[in-house]
Amino acid sequence: xxxxxxxLLSPAGNPAALRAAIEAGxxxxxxxFADRTNARNYPGLNFDVDEMVEGVAFAHSKGAKVxxxxxxxxxxxxxxxxxxxxxxxxxAGxxxxxxxxxGVLDYAANKHPNLRRHLSVQASAANPLSINYYRDQFGVKRxxxxxxxxxxxxxxxxxxxxxxxxxxxYGSVGPxxxxxxxxxxxxxxxxxxxxxxxxPASHVTYKEEGDFVLSCLGDVVLxxxxxxxxxxxxxxxxxxxxxxxxxxxxxxxxxxLNALDILPELKKAGVTALKIEGRQRSKAYVAEVxxxxxxxxxxxxxxxxxxxxxxxxxxxxxxxxxGAYKKGWR
Amino acid sequence: xxxxxxxxxxxxxxxxxxPPFVLARAIDALxxxxxxxxxxxxxxxxxxxxxxxHVEPSDLPHRFALKFGGDEKAFVRLLDPRDETPGDACIKGxxxxxxxxxxxxxxxxxxxFTRGLVxxxxxxxVVALRNTLDREEIDLFADVTSMFGPLQKPAERALTAIxxxxxxxxxxxxxFIDSLREDKTAxxxxxxxxxxxxxxxxxxKTLQTRIAKLEVREKLAKGASQDPAHS
Lengths: 330, 231
Ligand code: SF4
What we know:
heterodimer, A: about 325 residues, TIM Barrel, 15 strands, B: alpha+beta, binds iron/sulfur cluster, Peptidase_U32 (chain A), U32 family peptidase (chain A)
């Protein structure tokens, strides 16, 4: 494998997506077990233990890494699934585990000291004091930064912590500090941080109403989308609420983060790895987004200037943003 | 090697003219073929909760019911036009979209964002089906042509030739339409101003949202200054 100074990290919701990602040029993939120990716990998604063992073997044969996300928060008295997930990731030969809960971090650090630990975005650690705490207490090697920091703030964190920094390069954006959002729990009674799914499919319904489609979460109507209008994920933060008599996207517009055009800036800020969001997406999405980023990252390495691929068709609402990287609202 | 595509117009044509009993038997035969080619897919489908999903190709006169889960073997049934029994969920899209989706060649979420695919009913059923299908590498072209047994190779060649002819025709039609668009006297600069107009529209939308947010803030601030209990 050629050395890329920015590691390209792809989602893999299933073994076929893992293979597609690596064939499209990902340096590493992240995935989870098929239970609530990870933040994409949707029906039919994720890996059983045998699939994880095979996935790791396939990735290693191609010189790629596998990072296992065990990034939800265990409820009181129900640690077993999380402990099993750590033990199984270690047994499968995973290159790292991505963790959020301090109890889970402690268990992994003590039971498998040689298994690399990354701090999940779900831990919401966004300043050097907090990140250094995880580094010093649990030997965390890399932090995944929440999507709320500007490029300058990312550079500050990288400088002050000396840690490996992973940031999001493409995919869904949420306006909240991750791991601290209660909107979906409020509407469904199921917590994204311990059940592993924001807007769980079991609570989502769509209804056609003439030329419009209504999307509902539980008994709350989240949106009414007209023909030809880009649709959004049915998450409460992307809902169109009526405030002061006007309907609008109060928290977040249906839009996808796309950092393809600011890769040199992110690299200069000290970023180690670039993460593509979307374990819930298909292998077709994975192949297309990974190959666009592979080409762009290779061009950054060789100093070549080239126009980047258009990913708007794959983007939520058909629109894209630099998100907080280029904060204009502060 | 990139897998070949089943030419959608051919599939559409065949499925439109075939009498229902012939279509039903062809579906049975294809299902049996797929079961042999993808045993893991059928095992994974059986493991799911039991669901019935209605599939309604928008460009075909037929509807289908796909039943899976509950430890039973998945099967597809041609729905009687008078059958009004609802499924747990319903998926609508044109046959090209549905075939590509089945083979994992396009992203379901992207189709949903652009409304190329419409789903209704129990979303958990659709998500479970979509995720289970996406785990497999399905190549309908191979599955269909292998049903021809010893005639597989000629069938592959014939379908590929039809597909190529269709691509060429589509290409010629696109060129013809482009040549009409290239009417210089009309508006040679159209793409540039269209882009600018779209960019301005997007900017306007963002500004409207910002104004709405600021108005809410203003109202809240006014409310707070009038109501000391909220200060
Ligand atoms: S509502 Fe939005 S911000 Fe909150 S957990 Fe869901 S996706 Fe994240």
